[in-house]
Amino acid sequence: MIKKIIVSICLLFSFALFAQEGTSSPYSFYGIGDIKFKGTIENRSMGSLSVFPDSIHINIQNPAHFASLKLTGLALGGTYGNTKSKTETQEAKARRTTLDYLAIGVPVSSKVGIGFGLIPYSSIGYKIQKNIYDIKSTTDINGITHIDTIGAKFSKYTGKGGVNKVFLGFGYRLTKKINIGADIQYNFGTIETSNLRYQTLPLLQYGSRETNVSEVRGVNVDLGITYQTKVNAKYSFFSSLAYTPEAELTLGNTRNIDIVQVSSSVSVIERENIAVEDTKIKLPAKLTFGSGFGEVKKWLVGAEITLLNNSVMSNRFTDIQGATFENSVRYTLGGFFIPNYNSYSNYYKRIVYRGGLRYENTGLVIQNKSMNDFAANIGLGMPLSGTFTNINIGLEIGKRGTKYYNLVEENYINISVGLSLSDKWFVKRKFD
Fold first, then answer.
1. To the nearest whole number, what is the mean pLDDT of the chain?
2. What sign does the dihedral 343-60-401-211 (CA atoms) show?
3. Given phi > 0 = left and psi -120 to 50 = alpha, else beta, which region is 308?
4. Phi-psi map region of 3: left, alpha, beta (phi>0 left; psi -120 to 50 alpha)
5. pLDDT tens sequence across 320-357
6. Where is the signal peptide (predicted)?
7. What is the pLDDT of residues 383-403, one digit of tens each?
8. Which of 75, 188, 192, 242 could lock onto 62 through a cystine, CB 3.0 to 4.6 A?
9. 118 vs 104: CA distance, rounded Å
């Protein structure tokens, strides 16, 4: 029965993945969009900290953690996001509900674990309208000023799509203290952007629209190692290192120029296909190192640093201007606390309380200004009685960018809910 439930969830997740718009940020126009994945709900609630080798929760930020699994598990997470975007003169609000990841982890033996799943890695989603009015003022002989609009031009920019990852990984317990692991990821997706322009004063019957579509394909790998040791009979030290080598995505590009008529909807009058070259975008090399200290099944405090070689990134087309990329860094500080994980009389003592901070330079540079992102996280891991299953809830409050220099500041609140379903599988029955 549980296998049928998992198959149904996988199918539902796949259908929803292709229908969702994962972001509302104008910054997603550049590169391959907003990088959305920052770990499972458990990790994100600690600021994306990933150093802890949990035996029942799937950690997909470092494949070496698969070797720590003691139970077969399914992890599923989604987010409701509310973003207020503002400039020096305007404000806008947007809401999004997205599915963030689906992963399954299986302990093959006492030393080997495998994991596989699907991750919506990056998202493009924006709708921007720019209006230009030409104003003329005249004064008649009575001294009364008349203001006339002599021209009204409109530009609408839209984008949707993104890059998804299917991954397969394994972890191996090299010694009692050291795990190693690797995974392979297949990247795929479709990115579509358009620019619609038309004029109403003086009235022009037709407008124009440029549409660019990119089919994204590519493969990359992740490598990882973790270390865990007892400091004394009570406390433990944890450390992890994950490395993603530089990889390359191939983009099959098409471009259409349409003559359109704009009313309550947009009707295509004539279309011309423009030949554009296929392009390649590099995925930057990434190095993540972190350490933590704590008491197993009680509490943990850890810190992590991630370095990305984002300077190798580029835009999808060579004629996209206005942005460059630089090497970036992310700092994470977080942890968790469990009052009493095996308490039978007080449910609240079994809840996992999580918190963390995250600060990063995203690597995107617009008008010589680096786009920085800062967020604070808290979360709860609520166990279901009599099982190893947990419902995880996380709250993230953050800010990205700036409203000055003709840029956009994004203030966001994300509420995430995840299911971590763990159980023993492949156990031979003694009785039928």
1. 87
2. negative
3. beta
4. alpha
5. 677 889 999 999 999 999 999 888 889 999 999 999 99
6. 1-19
7. 987 778 899 999 999 999 999
8. 242
9. 9
Buried b (16+ CB within 10 A) or exposed e, 95-110: ebebbbbbbbbbbbee
192-232 confidence digits (pLDDT tens): 999 999 888 777 889 999 999 999 999 999 999 999 999 99
**Pairing relationship of beta strands 112-139 and 91-107 according to DSSP bridges:** antiparallel
Rounded CA separation 114/104 (Å): 8
Tokens of 63: 């494949």
Kindly report, residue by residue over 99-155, the tens digit of the pLDDT: 999 999 999 999 999 999 999 999 998 887 878 776 665 656 566 666 666 668 888
Distance CA 129, CA 189 (A): 26
Among 185, 255, 186, smallest CA distance to 214 is for 255
- What pairs with residue 187 in β-bridges? 165, 218
Three-class SS string for the chain? CHHHHHHHHHHHHHHHHHHCCCCCCHHHHCCCCEECCCCCHHHHCCCCCCCCCCCCCCCCCCHHHHHHCCCEEEEEEEEEEEEEEECCCCEEEEEEEEEEEEEEEEECCCCEEEEEEEEEEEEEEEEEEEEEEEEEEEECCCCCEEEEEEEEEEEEEEEEEEEEEEEEEEEEECCCCEEEEEEEEEEEEEEEEEEEEEEEECCCCCEEEEEEEEEEEEEEEEEEEEEEEECCCCCEEEEEEEEECCEEEEEEEEEEEEEEEECCCEEEEEEEEECCCCEEEEECCEEEEEEEEEECCCEEEEEEEEEECHHHCCCCCCCCCCEEECCEEEEEEEEEECCCCCCCCCHHHHCEEEEEEEEEEEEEEECCEEEEEEEEEEEEEEECCCCCCEEEEEEEEEEEECCCCCCCEEEEEEEEEEEEEEECCCCCCCCC
Cis peptide before 202 (omega within 30 of 0): yes
Q: Rounded to an integer, what distance in angstroms lies between the CA atom of residue 243 and that of residue 63? A: 10
pLDDT-derived band at 89 (thresholds 50, 70, 90) equals confident
